[in-house]
Design brief:
The complex is a heterodimer of chains A (381) and B (510). Chain A contains 15 helices and 4 strands. With 381 residues, chain A is an all-alpha fold. The chains are: A mainly alpha (381), B alpha/beta (510).
Chain lengths: 381, 510
């Protein structure tokens, strides 16, 4: 329900450009320090890391929209990835079955946690802080404080392929073309429907310009990936997740209710919204995001070890907030979250590339999170 | 003698709007001066300017206190000059006691410690002075709205404020509490305190004020002596047109009495929670299609609780039965009630009614989204937009378009959104809890017309109101509640303020 033709004023322009400019500044900074930053290999790695952070952030986005928070997802990512790894490596389960069971476990855990928060009226901050510690303990218990590879021997399986398989060049382009075609079709049909009912529409040149930009961005992304080995699977998973979350939040009653609950929970309940059910639903979806992220990040590191998932909840929250999601709920967009994840990932990836010390990395991460929340508070006024 | 407070040619501009234009106004020592005007007329802006919230330099024109130009840069400056502003949003700390609130920031001390006995002694004396039967140790969170208001006034008086500015002080008060408040204001006047009194309730204004200044569209239209004017003249100045009939209730459809009741409540007992003592006891009434049933009573009589219970939002039913269209109704959530065709428009629209950060359209359709949902679970936004547009236009919501933020609108327009949201669910029974609280005369009339349209279409309305004239003007029948019980039921020909009030208090005295 955003305004159809927002009047372009300078302030809005500046607000809209702040994030792209920040991203540009980060990229220029790292690229001048280390030319490999923009090399195909590092960019592909960056895209995989971005996909992992972005998927988790999209789950967190729906939780934050309702004004809740989930601090347990970092530990959960480790736990879910660990369960699947143990089943594959120690119990010789086929990878699809192992991933399926871990997925169901995540779904059940998060549904239970959501039910607990809603049913017992305990603040989500406390329940999920408990979850953070409990899941961490369970995680270490499951993997026995050791390193558990995601595949046996040198064999590839579905689990390990998650981050080592790249789409062949033509497939990548075909997929991108399909996504763009569907997006164009949706945009055109929406416009026709509005015109037919005499509703205001954006001018055609602007639409074409926006479409051109989007197409260039998507095809450019594929081309970057193709210069290395092709489009990595995590990017496809992120795109699918983003599409799903976008549809849910923009086009379904459920999504509208997330915004309403975050904006005014009491009014939402009195408007006939089943607040508890919607909140449990948001946590269940968070569970799915945790599972997908857990599989990808564990596969990316090749094995499940005690540090997998560490502090990822904070990266996810930071990505959301940087992207304009309000911590108090009721405000935010999928596009913003994706952008926030990109900024967060570029920052972490660049620092790793420059071999910045872990101490400095912690401090930088904390500074970015604080800065983002500070901006959230300022914008809120 | 110079006026205590004078405003000379005040103009206050916001980007794109002139909120005040050339406002002139003066306050004499020891007078009660009422400010009247529709919502959006500029009253709030004027108050914020007087209170130093809009600092000197952010407006044109000048303010003078005791004849000398006053340049308030902050609320502190205004307070130092003897102004105390009491608004609808209380400046009280809920978790602290009455005494702590009265002496907030200036507690009596013994050395570096707070002198608690002295504080409580002085607070008790002040409260007794005001005839308030309140222990100084009572936490403010336990007070009713009326009592909170009086505590704020006590604090202002003790700070030696010479000018009290009261913004809609009686919006949430019952008739009895209003009488208490007006009594105190008259007494303060006799002791030399001047008062600027803002209210939509003109009968109160006429019962209290010495002079009345009318604001319209940001300009001061006229200042009248109360003894030389009458309510119709003030209304004419406020709206710029004559309003002949304040409560234009149409008679219900002729066959209404013959129709079977749509809502029947029998011997209902409701407690806040299972096992707790009942707050509502032995409530029975019925409602027919096309009828407006009024509910009156003092604050705390249980009117809101009754509506919230019927709506599935409050309480545990200990006994009794509710039937909607002949079928038992036991809604466990508003969702169930709405699905059955019963909807509530709540009294506190900012807290319970609206998602203020969202657009008008978002709020209008919030209760009706399942109606617009098409496979695979997608909201048909074109259909939704058109339906919103119908309501936006027919409710005459004053905003550029339905994409405007709900939180930025005036009270009357927000109330229209709340009503529109309820009506979009196509209810059979509409529960209205104080639907005209704090909204201006013009918007009130539109709400009354809406009630007429609903009942003409065969929908039934339950109207809760603390304003007796409104209750008597708009209801076909009235039920008075007294301390959670039915105090009396009245047909239209038996509406007399005295008997209604007696019914509201009857069981209280016993």
């Amino acid at each position: 329900m955003e305004p159809i033709s927002p009047s372009l004023n300078f302030r809005r322009l500046l607000q809209n450009l702040a994030m792209p400019l920040a991203l540009l500044a980060i990229c220029v900074f790292f690229a001048t320090r280390e030319s490999a930053f923009l090399g195909p290999r590092n960019l592909t790695q960056l895209i995989v890391e971005f996909s992992i952070t972005g998927t988790l952030a999209l789950g967190m986005f729906m939780i934050l929209l309702t004004g809740q928070i989930d601090l347990s997802v970092g530990s959960g990512v480790g736990l879910v990835g660990g369960i699947a790894a143990v089943l594959v490596f120690q119990h010789a389960w086929p990878a699809p079955a192992a991933l399926g069971l871990a997925f169901v476990a995540a779904l059940v855990l998060w549904t239970l946690m959501g039910t607990l928060i809603v049913g017992q009226r305990i603040p989500s901050f406390i329940i999920t802080l408990g979850g953070l510690l409990i899941f961490k303990g369970l995680f270490w218990l499951v993997i026995g404080n050791s390193t558990v590879p995601v595949a046996r021997g040198d064999q590839d399986n579905l689990y390990s392929l998650l981050t080592t398989y790249y789409l062949p060049r033509p497939v990548g382009f075909a997929l991108a073309a399909a996504v763009l075609a569907v997006a164009a079709l949706l945009a055109w049909r929406g416009r026709q429907a509005r015109l037919q009912h005499g509703l205001p529409v954006a001018p055609l040149p602007r639409l074409l310009l926006q479409g051109g930009f989007a197409a260039a961005a998507v095809l450019g992304l594929v081309e970057i990936c193709n210069r290395f080995r092709g489009v990595p699977l995590p990017l496809v998973i992120l795109a699918a997740t983003a599409g799903g979350v976008w549809f849910l939040t923009r086009h379904t009653p459920f999504g509208r209710y997330l915004y309403a609950i975050g904006g005014n929970e009491e009014a939402a309940a009195l408007s006939g919204i089943a607040v508890s059910r919607v909140l449990v639903g948001a946590y269940a979806l968070m569970g799915i995001a945790v599972a997908l992220t857990g599989f990808m990040t564990t596969a990316y590191s090749g094995s499940s070890t005690t540090t997998v998932g560490d502090l990822m909840e904070l990266d996810a929250i930071a990505a959301c907030v940087i992207g304009g999601t309000a911590l108090r709920g009721g405000r935010g967009t999928v596009g913003g979250v994706i952008f926030g994840a990109l900024i967060m990932t570029a920052l972490l990836n660049g620092m790793t590339l420059l071999a910045v010390s872990p101490e400095a990395k912690f401090i930088a991460r904390g500074a970015v999170l604080t800065l983002a929340v500070w901006m959230d508070v300022k914008l809120r006024r | 003698m110079p006026p205590l407070l004078a405003a000379r040619a005040l103009t206050k501009r916001f980007p794109g709007v002139v909120a005040l234009r050339d406002v002139n106004f003066d306050l004499r020592p020891g007078e009660i001066h009422a400010l009247c005007g529709e919502n959006g007329a500029g009253k709030s802006t004027l108050i914020k300017l007087l209170a130093g919230i809009y600092p000197h330099g952010s407006y044109e024109g000048e303010l003078a206190v005791d004849g000398a130009v006053a340049a308030f840069r902050s609320i502190r400056d205004a307070e130092a000059a003897g102004l105390a502003v009491i608004t609808q949003e209380f400046a009280l700390v809920d978790e602290l006691s009455v005494a702590e609130n009265i002496f907030l920031g200036r507690a009596p001390r013994r050395g570096w410690r707070i002198d608690w006995p002295e504080m409580h002694r002085r607070a008790a004396a002040l409260l007794a002075d005001f005839g308030l039967a309140l222990a100084p140790e009572t936490p403010v969170r336990e007070l009713g709205i009326g009592q909170k208001q009086l505590v704020e006034i006590v604090r202002a008086i003790d700070k030696r404020s010479r000018i009290l500015v009261l913004d809609e002080p009686t919006a949430a008060l019952t008739e009895q509490e209003v009488a208490v408040l007006l009594g105190h204001l008259r007494r303060l006047r006799s002791q030399g305190t001047a008062c600027i009194y803002i209210s939509h309730k003109l009968d109160e204004v006429f019962a209290l004020a010495d002079r009345i200044t009318v604001l319209r569209d940001g300009a001061s239209v006229v200042t009248l002596d109360r003894t030389a004017t009458a309510i119709p003249e003030v209304i004419r100045h406020m709206v710029g047109r004559e309003i002949t009939d304040l409560f234009p209730r149409h008679a219900p459809p002729a066959d209404a009495a013959a129709r079977p009741p749509i809502l029947e409540v029998r011997n209902l007992d409701v407690a806040p929670s299972p096992g707790a003592p009942a707050r509502l006891r032995d409530i029975s009434f019925s409602l027919r299609p096309g009828e407006v049933l009024g509910f009156g009573g003092l604050m705390g009589a249980g009117r809101t609780e009754l509506l919230m219970h019927l709506f599935g939002a409050w309480g545990h039913r200990a006994a009794g039965e509710v039937r909607l269209e002949g079928q038992p109704l036991r809604a466990r959530s508003p969702r169930e009630a709405i699905a059955r065709g019963l909807v509530l428009a709540s009294e506190d629209r900012r807290r319970y009614g609206l998602v203020l950060d969202q657009q008008i359209g978002f709020n209008l359709s919030l209760s009706s989204l399942p109606r617009f949902t098409v496979p695979p679970g997608r909201v048909d936004r074109v259909a939704e937009f058109r339906r919103n547009q119908d309501f936006f236009a027919s409710l005459r919501i004053k905003a550029p378009d339905q994409q405007a933020r709900a939180g930025g609108l005036s009270g009357g327009n927000q109330q229209k959104i709340v009503l529109g949201k309820a009506l979009m669910t196509e209810p059979k029974v509409v529960l209205l809890d104080e639907p005209t609280r704090g909204i201006d005369v013009g918007a009130k009339l539109e709400v009354y017309e809406l009630i007429n349209r609903l009942t003409a279409a065969g929908q039934a309305v339950v109207l809760v109101s603390s304003e007796l004239p409104e209750l008597m003007g708009m209801s076909d029948r009235i039920v008075m509640l007294a301390a959670g019980r039915i105090g009396g039921e009245f047909a239209r020909r038996d509406f007399h303020p005295e008997s209604l009030l007696a019914a509201a208090m009857g069981r209280l005295a016993a």
